[in-house]
C-alpha cells in the first residue's frame, strides 16, 4: 500500500472531513482497464510495480508525469473491460487519491469500493474541469470545487449500502463482521 | 410479482421471495473462480484479512489459464501460489497444464456450473455461463476473496433488458455475429449495469457453443450478465454432465424490462468489430481492403469444438496466405482431443496453421502470438482495445471463426463466400 493513498481514506466519506486537493488529468470516454494497466504487466501484483506502467498505452510518459495527489477525471464508462483489480491498484500506487467520472463500468466500480479507492460520479464536474485545473474535493459532502475556474459541483450521493462498506473499511472487514456478528 | 429470470435466480440466492431492480442484496454463491492473474491477488487479500478456511473447497475453481504454460518466472510464481493455496485448503478444482483449459470453456464442460446457479468469477467473461440459464458475472479479486471465505457476495439487482432474435439465421452466421451486431447497436456501455436476456426463435435454434459465445460478450456492452433461459438444447448439454441438481428458471409473463430490442435474425450478416472497440462493428463483406498479419482462432469466446469445425470447413484444402500467421487454440484438453480425433488438425496443418496448447495467451497480449507495431490481426476473441494483443500501435478485428479462417486464406478480412468456400450440406 502506497503511503500517499492510505486504505482508510474512503472511510472518511460518510461522516468525516477528508478533503483532497490536486491537479486534474483528463481522459475521454470508455477508458478500458487494458489502457489503465496493460495485460503484459499483470505478471506483477504490487501497487508500486503496477504504478510504473499506469496509462502507459495512452501516454508512455504518463507514469513519469503524474504526481502523488493528482486526480483522474474521465468521461463515461471509466474502467470498462477486464476485471483486473490491478487497475485500481495501479492508480492508488501512483498516489492518485480519487477518480471522478461521468460513469464507471460496473466491475471497476465494485473494485474501487472493495479496495478503498474513492470514486465519484459527477457528470457536470467532468464537463467543468480541464486538464491541469486545481480541484478540491470534500469526500464527506461530495462537493467538488474547481479552484482554477472557481466553479462548484456536486457528486451523486453514495448509496447507503456503499456507505456501510466504506464504514466497515472495505469488503473483507464488512464480510468478516457479518460472519462473526 | 412477475420477475425476470435474473431476478428469480437472485431472489432465490438471497433467500427471499422477490427482489426488485435496485435492491442491494447479499447472495449465496454456488460457485466461484479465479485465474492466474486474479486469484493470486485474491489469495493475498484472503490471507491479509485473516481468513483461515474456505467456505467450501468443492465450490471454488482456481484456473491458471491466462499466461500458461507459464511464460516467465513471475508467472510461474503466481501459479505456484495458486497451487500451494489449493493444496493448503483442499481446493478440488485446481488444474495444472495437461488438465487445464480456458476457464469459461472448461467449467461448463466439466459440469461445475449449471442452470439456476449464481456464479462469480474474478474474470470479466464469467458472464459466459449465462448461456446455461445461470446468473454469472465478473467481479474483482477482493470479491473473490470474500466469496472464497464466506460463500457470500453483494449485488445490486440489475434492471433487465431483452433482446429478441426472430426467425432463421443467414448462412454462415453464428452467435458471435449476433452479439457483435448487438454491441454495435447499443454501444460498449449500452447495457451498463443491466441484465441482458437473449431470446426468440433464432436463439432457440442456436447450439450451446454459439450461446456461450453470445453470453461471453455481454460484458462488452457493459452488461452485468447475459442470460439465455434453459431449453431442450441446454438440458441435453447439462444432463449427465452437471454435478449438482440443475434449477431451471425462466422469466415470468409480465416481468418488467427497462427496454427491448427485436431483430429479424435474417437481417444480421457476418459481422466484424474494427479497432479499438467491440462496438465498432461493420458487415465483414465490406472490409475486404483490410490486410492482415495474423489470425487467432480460439479463446473463451470461440475456442470450442464447433468453432474449430467451422474454421476447418473453410481451411480444408486451402493454404493460409503466405503473409499471415494462423494460430488455432483449442480451449480445453477435451476439445483438443476431439478436434484431433475428428481429423481437424490434419486440415489445419495442411493449411499451414499452427495448433497451440490451451491458453488465453494472445487474446490479452499475454504470449503465444503477440503483435508488433503496425501489425493487424483478425481474432475470434472478445476485445480489441488499444494494445490488447501486443504493441499499442497494433490492431485487432474481432470476428467469428468463419470470417477468421477465410481471412487467414485471403490475407485480408474476408467471408467464406468471398474466398469461394462451398457450404457443407
Describe this structure in words.
Chain A has 181 residues and is α/β, with parallel strands linked by helices. Chain A is built from 8 helices and 7 strands; from the N terminus they run E-H-H-H-E-H-E-H-E-H-E-E-E-H-H. Chain A has helices spanning 33-36, 47-51, 62-65, 86-93, 106-115, 123-127, 160-168, 171-180; strands at residues 19-27, 71-74, 99-101, 119-121, 134-138, 143-146, 152-154. Chain A has a 7-stranded mixed sheet. The two termini of chain A are 28 Å apart. Residues 1-17 of chain A have low confidence and may be disordered. By secondary structure, chain B is α/β, with parallel strands linked by helices. Helices cover 30% and strands 18% of the residues of chain B. Chain B contains 14 helices and 18 strands. Chain B has a 5-stranded parallel sheet with strand order 4-3-2-5-6. A 5-stranded parallel sheet of chain B has the order 16-15-14-17-18. In chain B, strands 10-9-8-11 form a 4-stranded parallel sheet. In chain B, strand 3 (60-63), helix 3 (73-89) and strand 4 (93-94) form a beta-alpha-beta unit. The longest helix of chain B is centred in the N-terminal third of the chain and has 17 residues, at 73-89. The mean pLDDT of chain B is 98. Chains A and B meet through helix 5 and helix 8 of A and helix 2, helix 3, helix 5 and strand 7 of B.
Amino acid at each position: 500500500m502506497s503511503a500517499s493513498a492510505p486504505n482508510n481514506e474512503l472511510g472518511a466519506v460518510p461522516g468525516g472531513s477528508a478533503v483532497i486537493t490536486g491537479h486534474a488529468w483528463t481522459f475521454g470516454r470508455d477508458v478500458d482497464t487494458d489502457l489503465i494497466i496493460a495485460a503484459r504487466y499483470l505478471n506483477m501484483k504490487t501497487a508500486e510495480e503496477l504504478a510504473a506502467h499506469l496509462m502507459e498505452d495512452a501516454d508512455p510518459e504518463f507514469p513519469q508525469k503524474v504526481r502523488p495527489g493528482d486526480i483522474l477525471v474521465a468521461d463515461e464508462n471509466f474502467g470498462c473491460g477486464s476485471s483486473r483489480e490491478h487497475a485500481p491498484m495501479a492508480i492508488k500506487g501512483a498516489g492518485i487519491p480519487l477518480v471522478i467520472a461521468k460513469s464507471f463500468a460496473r466491475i471497476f466500480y465494485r473494485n474501487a469500493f472493495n479496495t478503498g479507492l474513492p470514486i465519484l460520479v459527477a457528470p457536470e464536474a467532468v464537463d467543468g474541469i480541464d486538464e491541469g485545473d486545481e480541484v478540491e474535493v470534500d469526500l464527506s459532502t461530495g462537493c467538488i470545487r474547481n479552484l482554477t475556474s472557481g466553479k462548484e459541483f456536486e457528486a451523486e450521493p453514495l448509496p447507503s449500502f456503499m456507505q456501510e462498506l466504506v464504514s466497515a473499511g472495505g469488503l473483507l472487514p464488512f464480510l468478516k463482521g457479518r460472519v462473526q456478528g | 410479482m412477475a420477475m425476470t429470470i435474473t431476478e428469480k435466480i437472485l431472489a432465490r440466492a438471497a433467500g427471499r421471495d422477490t427482489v426488485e431492480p435496485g435492491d442491494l442484496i447479499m447472495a449465496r454463491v454456488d460457485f466461484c473462480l479465479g485465474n492466474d492473474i486474479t486469484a493470486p491477488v485474491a489469495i493475498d487479500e484472503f490471507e491479509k484479512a485473516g481468513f483461515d478456511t474456505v467456505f467450501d473447497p468443492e465450490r471454488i475453481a482456481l484456473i491458471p489459464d491466462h499466461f500458461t504454460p507459464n511464460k516467465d518466472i513471475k508467472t510461474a510464481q503466481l501459479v505456484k501460489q495458486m497451487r500451494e493455496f489449493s493444496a493448503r485448503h483442499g481446493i478440488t478444482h485446481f488444474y495444472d497444464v495437461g488438465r487445464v483449459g480456458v476457464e469459461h470453456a472448461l467449467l461448463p464442460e466439466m459440469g461445475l456450473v449449471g442452470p439456476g446457479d449464481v456464479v462469480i468469477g474474478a474474470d470479466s467473461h464469467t458472464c459466459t455461463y449465462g448461456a446455461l440459464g445461470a446468473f454469472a458475472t465478473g467481479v474483482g479479486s477482493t470479491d473473490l476473496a470474500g466469496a472464497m471465505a464466506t460463500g457470500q457476495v453483494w449485488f445490486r439487482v440489475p434492471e433487465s433488458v431483452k433482446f429478441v432474435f426472430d426467425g432463421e439465421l443467414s448462412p454462415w452466421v453464428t452467435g458471435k455475429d449476433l452479439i457483435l451486431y448487438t454491441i454495435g447497436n447499443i454501444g460498449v456501455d449500452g447495457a451498463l449495469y443491466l441484465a441482458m436476456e437473449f431470446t426468440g426463435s433464432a436463439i432457440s435454434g442456436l447450439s450451446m457453443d454459439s450461446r456461450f459465445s453470445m453470453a461471453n460478450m455481454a460484458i462488452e456492452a457493459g452488461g452485468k450478465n447475459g442470460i439465455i433461459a434453459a431449453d431442450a438444447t441446454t438440458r441435453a448439454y447439462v444432463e449427465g454432465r452437471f454435478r449438482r441438481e440443475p434449477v431451471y428458471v425462466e422469466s415470468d409473463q409480465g416481468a418488467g424490462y427497462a427496454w427491448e430490442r427485436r431483430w429479424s435474425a435474417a437481417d444480421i450478416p457476418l459481422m466484424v468489430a474494427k479497432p479499438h472497440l467491440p462496438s465498432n462493428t461493420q458487415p465483414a463483406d465490406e472490409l475486404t481492403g483490410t490486410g492482415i498479419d495474423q489470425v487467432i482462432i480460439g479463446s473463451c469466446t470461440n475456442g470450442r469444438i464447433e468453432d474449430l469445425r467451422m474454421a476447418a470447413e473453410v481451411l480444408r484444402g486451402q493454404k493460409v496466405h503466405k503473409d499471415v500467421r494462423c494460430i488455432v487454440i483449442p480451449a480445453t484438453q477435451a476439445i483438443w482431443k476431439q478436434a484431433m480425433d475428428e481429423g481437424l488438425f490434419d486440415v489445419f496443418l495442411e493449411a499451414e496453421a499452427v495448433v497451440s496448447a490451451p491458453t488465453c495467451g494472445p487474446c490479452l497480449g499475454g504470449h503465444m502470438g503477440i503483435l508488433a507495431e503496425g501489425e493487424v490481426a483478425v481474432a475470434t476473441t472478445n476485445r480489441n482495445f488499444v494494445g490488447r494483443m501486443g504493441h499499442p500501435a497494433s490492431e485487432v478485428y474481432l470476428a467469428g471463426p468463419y470470417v477468421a479462417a477465410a481471412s487467414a486464406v485471403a490475407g485480408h478480412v474476408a467471408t467464406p463466400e468471398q474466398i469461394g468456400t462451398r457450404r457443407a450440406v
